[in-house]
Amino acid sequence: MVKLFADGGWAMWPLLVLLIIGIAVAIERLITLSRAAIDAEEFFKDLEGALKKWRARSGCSAVFGNARPRSFGYPCRAFADASRH
């Protein structure tokens, strides 16, 4: 392995540095993400509540069925379609 590295010449040194940086970043992400465990069920309930509040404040319920152009109601329709699943 060392012989192959030496045969690669000067271009192997930047590759080695990038490899070491990549491994360090991967280890750091692994450690950080393993510590950042969240309660997914609670998170999604909070997210759903926030989206419902946004929908009520933005007037999406008033836009449904209105004769306005499609672009005005599109975000509301997309939210309604997503909440049905």
H and E string: HHHHH
Q: Which value, in Å, is the CA radius of gyration? A: 26 Å
Query: Main β-sheet, in a few words?
Result: none
Provide the helix percentage.
over 70%
Please work out how many helical segments DSSP would assign: 5
Provide an overview of this structure:
- This protein is an all-alpha fold.
- It folds into two domains: about 35 residues; about 45 residues.
- The longest helix has 24 residues.
- The termini are far apart.
- About 5% of the residues have low confidence.
Helix/strand layout:
Elements: H1 2-8, H2 12-35, H3 40-58, H4 60-63, H5 70-84
Q: What is the gist of this entry?
A:
81% of the residues lie in helices and 0% in strands. The chain has 85 residues and is mostly helical. The protein folds into 2 domains: 2-35; 40-84.
Relevant terms:
mainly alpha, 5 helices, 0% strand, single chain, elongated
